[in-house]
Amino acid sequence: MGDVKILLDESEIPKQWYNVAADLPVPLPPPLGPDGNPIGPEALTPLFPMALIEQEVSTERWIPIPEPVRDIYRMWRPSPMFRARQLEQALGTPAKIYYKYEGVSPAGSHKPNTAVAQAYYNQKEGCRRLTTETGAGQWGSSIALAGAMFGLTVRVYMVKVSYQQKPFRRSMMETWGAEVFASPTNMTQSGRAALALDPNTPGSLGLAISEAVEDAASREDTHYALGSVLNHVVLHQTVIGLEAREQFKKINEFPDVVIGCCGGGSNFGGTAFPFLMDKASGKQVRLVAVEPDSCPTLTKGRYAYDHGDTAKLTPLLPMYSLGHDFIPPGIHAGGLRYHGDSPLVSHLVHLGLIEAVGVPQLATFQAGVLFARSEGILPAPEANHAVRVAIDEALACKQTGEAKTIFFTLSGHGHFDMAAYDRYFAGDLEDYAYPEEKINASLAALRPVSLG
Amino acid sequence: MGDVKILLDESEIPKQWYNVAADLPVPLPPPLGPDGNPIGPEALTPLFPMALIEQEVSTERWIPIPEPVRDIYRMWRPSPMFRARQLEQALGTPAKIYYKYEGVSPAGSHKPNTAVAQAYYNQKEGCRRLTTETGAGQWGSSIALAGAMFGLTVRVYMVKVSYQQKPFRRSMMETWGAEVFASPTNMTQSGRAALALDPNTPGSLGLAISEAVEDAASREDTHYALGSVLNHVVLHQTVIGLEAREQFKKINEFPDVVIGCCGGGSNFGGTAFPFLMDKASGKQVRLVAVEPDSCPTLTKGRYAYDHGDTAKLTPLLPMYSLGHDFIPPGIHAGGLRYHGDSPLVSHLVHLGLIEAVGVPQLATFQAGVLFARSEGILPAPEANHAVRVAIDEALACKQTGEAKTIFFTLSGHGHFDMAAYDRYFAGDLEDYAYPEEKINASLAALRPVSLG
């Protein structure tokens, strides 16, 4: 048996992030203000430090990773890549399956890759307090961790359904010193408005974002941190794909297909964008974003200008969206319950450079259990979406006899998601129908994106 | 900043386990049967495969690790060693602190090191079903994982207090395909007897062992697997210390003190025994076993012959014990709630080659929170015992100005222990007084160990 893990040295942690904005065949349309006109970077200064705003609009291809950020990355990076030999055997596929495991970070997912960078820049520019939202708790944990590393106070608005499903994610954030509240709260106008409409709302990422943004905008000492969607967030996650490319070089392989689960888009974009450089230089590689078919942003949403949050506090972003009022069912992949998607991922899907596919909840858990029993690692429900499609690709190879090289990012472990596995085994989980007819009208009202 | 992680290649996974029985200055006294006479290996055949029985009594210094076991080890081994630079800074100590992190295994602790070996030998000798007990759930998870890897059916008797405190450990075992029951159950004679005495008993490791042994002994197709205490179990864990010694060689360092938490003794023995070779060759190194002061086996128990379980189904083992009837308080370090200890660890403590220290519960959580906020990783409550003593050693260095090299094994992560952290933050955790007077009489009745 050859090596199971493909490892890099600490010296091989990337020294620069890859900014896909430099290589877009058509430029990314700008965000718009409430008046419908493009907004400049200055509109973001109440929420973000200048360094992150500059990254948000930059078209430089390579952006240096500050040494203090790389020093924290050393705690878990470079993350390992694994050959999934036992999964291959279980499937009886001629395909080779590789996965990069981001669950080795202390918070258990890819999210600290950007949390650490965001905390660093905020601290460097004198910010002392951060607010944020979290869905499944992966992001909140990560910013809590990063806050502890850089001495920042952190407040997390956690989507209520996840707060209830994952009490120990809250404990984890508190252990790292953060304050955590179930969103909607009665501490913000956005929260109070949502509770007035429906006191039993399960909450949503869009709503939690509204609360965190409102909190940050109302205090001088506070900035806001977003765990996905925005360009600078996806930028920081490109360490995943950059390392993966080096890992493939070490073993003289190259993937035929690159797969990532996609909610706000940072895990998928961070994994896939660096491979666009290979695609541009003529290599054949498919890039596949996987989303839940109950929240099918890329596969059934509209490419349009929409707000990132429910209360319409954020600028209008050019993205695939199901409408900022869309509240997805309480599926267990909380990190994928977002009405919109990264503008960069959306743009590249729209341009045809990236594929998107939706998968039903039960099939993702089935894939996750098979993965756990063969590869050992217990995946997060979000990551199971990528596992599902990797398995489907491998099974297709079994039909055709092709020995494709399949690569996916296993974005996090499921240690805080065992209640979901319990419900899956008990037969209590459902597949949800997406209410297509119900929301088509509101989608049609969104302002379309013009590519000039 | 130098490297934070000290890594080895997969080719550097040890090819042999180190058997400290070969190097004891005084031989280990034999286990005794119910008649008080030494028992031979054949007495163990209803419970264990021959290969493990041979390891149990072997005095060969090096025992080859089968390739199929090394192949599974590759999933997470060699485990990383970290320099705890941020903890050092937080403490303001001149000491250097290193820790080896065993939480990288899929089950989240060191336990799979032996679980995989035990499952392998059982499967190889035709066994199809394993029973075991688990305290904190670390061991049960590990044997569930190993069972999945080698196609064995696994039944786990889980100490009731842990079953209640850690429901998601159960889910994890079930995800890997194991059956899990809260012990005492009404499915065994030992369980029924315990429930008759006290229907509300929190259970204990000793009692759960009784149930698992009774189950295994009553079925032809079933063997029993023990997660600690026995010689072959500690043997398998020596991969920890063997790798650590190689990692120290890579950085030209050597520890002044080696620390491990100690319940049944496999984590501590696995960490410390290989360093006895250095001690024997004249190097100065202290080996410190850390236990909870509410279950102070090594520090307040008697070195005597005692049963490993409550129902007296096991042979009499020569070990430090608090008496097989001792049921420790429901502290959150469930893996350290054992009345006895590894005969090998006990013997070496008795011979003065190993030190032992007891620490109170609250101080261990305080240490764990400081560790989490500086090093990122959230330790298991068991591991916090080692963290506590490492910090105490580092603070002593701060007083004396000595730049000692402190090494400990962080035996597992605390992802399934967040309820304990919750209780710690809420002020609901207690330090327990050990009932010294109450049990001294029963200790005095134990048969002393003669070293011949």
UniProtKB/TrEMBL annotation, chains A, B:
Keywords: Amino-acid biosynthesis, Aromatic amino acid biosynthesis, Lyase, Pyridoxal phosphate, Tryptophan biosynthesis. Its cofactor is pyridoxal 5'-phosphate. HAMAP family: Trp_synth_beta (MF_00133). Belongs to the TrpB family. Tetramer of two alpha and two beta chains. Its EC number is 4.2.1.20. Transmembrane segments: none annotated. It catalyses: (1S,2R)-1-C-(indol-3-yl)glycerol 3-phosphate + L-serine = D-glyceraldehyde 3-phosphate + L-tryptophan + H2O. InterPro entries: Trp_synth_b-like, Trp_synth_b_CS, Trp_synth_beta, Trp_synth_beta/beta-like, TrpB-like_PALP, TrpB-like_PALP_sf. This is Tryptophan synthase beta chain. The lineage of its organism: Bacteria, Pseudomonadati, Pseudomonadota, Magnetococcia, Magnetococcales. Signal peptide: none annotated. The modification N6-(pyridoxal phosphate)lysine is found at residue 111. GO terms for molecular function: tryptophan synthase activity. It is an enzyme of class 4 (lyase). The keyword Amino-acid biosynthesis applies. It comes from the Bacteria. Pfam families: PALP (PF00291). PROSITE patterns: TRP_SYNTHASE_BETA. The beta subunit is responsible for the synthesis of L-tryptophan from indole and L-serine. Pathway: Amino-acid biosynthesis; L-tryptophan biosynthesis; L-tryptophan from chorismate: step 5/5. Residues 76-412 form the Tryptophan synthase beta chain-like PALP domain.
